[in-house]
Amino acid sequence: MEHNVFEQMANRYDTEERIELANIIVKEVKAELQHSTTKSLLDYGSGTGLISLELAELVDSILLVDSSKQMLEVAEAKISRKGILNSSVLYSDFTQETPELKSDIIIMSLVLLHIPDTTKILQELFTILNDGGKLMIIDFDKNEKISHPKVHNGFSHEELQEKLEEVGFQSNEIKTFHHGKGIFMKQDAAMFISTSIK
Ligand SMILES: C[S@@+](CC[C@H](N)C(=O)[O-])C[C@H]1O[C@@H](n2cnc3c(N)ncnc32)[C@H](O)[C@@H]1O
């Protein structure tokens, strides 16, 4: 698996600022998870579980997937400490190889910006979703102040909408829900949530 900067930062990932931002995201995602108690949820690029481990009571099961073993170790320790019975982890990178899995809901929070080929990962997630399943992407709005060789500088809603449609998703809704100071590579930025149905 490709070298991942997140391996080095796993044990110090959960800072006050990241927890605060995660709580804002969790609030937004929870609003989309009404009547989901029988559904399976896959959190792609789960990191330490800041988002999905707050959702365990709203769904039937959660699979936290990440390409960093160390991030998953932190998530696993939280699962045992909190006694969460319906959540487990999987070390995997779907841009390399996608396992045979199915899920009703997929969340991808602050991960798409780290994946060079946007269309490819959307295709893989489309395959994994059950028919009628829901993909939720949380990421940054396009931000011209940011330039980094390995990270997308956010996404325009139109560009993402086009890619989602190309892959086969229907009824895509994208909205900006938060503006924050210094939240994207120390720059002020806005975050969107995109909800699509297979
Ligand atoms: C900024 S963190 C976000 C963590 C979590 N989703 C959240 O919102 O708190 C990005 C995570 O995506 C993971 N990641 C990056 N590229 C990935 C890939 N190709 N496949 C799976 N996980 C990936 C990283 O290891 C890291 O844990």
Question: How is the secondary structure organized here?
Answer:
Elements: H1 6-9, H2 16-30, E1 40-44, E2 61-66, H3 69-82, E3 87-91, E4 103-109, H4 118-128, E5 129-140, H5 157-167, E6 170-184, E7 187-197
Parallel strand pairs: 1-2, 1-4, 2-3, 4-5
Antiparallel strand pairs: 5-7, 6-7
Helix pairs in contact: 4-5
* CATH architectural category: 3-Layer(aba) Sandwich
Question: Helical element count?
Answer: 5
Low-confidence stretches: none
Termini separation (Å)?
29 Å
- How big is the Rg? 16 Å
Structural class: alpha/beta
Largest sheet: 7 strands, mixed
Number of domains: 1
Binned, the helix content reads 25-40%
Report on this structure.
The chain has 198 residues and is an alpha/beta fold. The chain has one domain (6-197): Vaccinia Virus protein VP39 (Rossmann fold), CATH 3.40.50.150. 28% of the residues lie in helices and 31% in strands. The chain contains 5 helices and 7 strands. Strands 3-2-1-4-5-7-6 form a 7-stranded mixed sheet. Helix 4 packs across helix 5 (157-167). The protein is globular. The mean pLDDT is 95. The structure holds S-adenosylmethionine (SAM).
Give the structure's gist in a few sentences.
With 198 residues, the chain is of the alpha/beta class.
What brief labels describe this structure?
single chain, 198 residues, alpha/beta, Rossmann fold, 5 helices
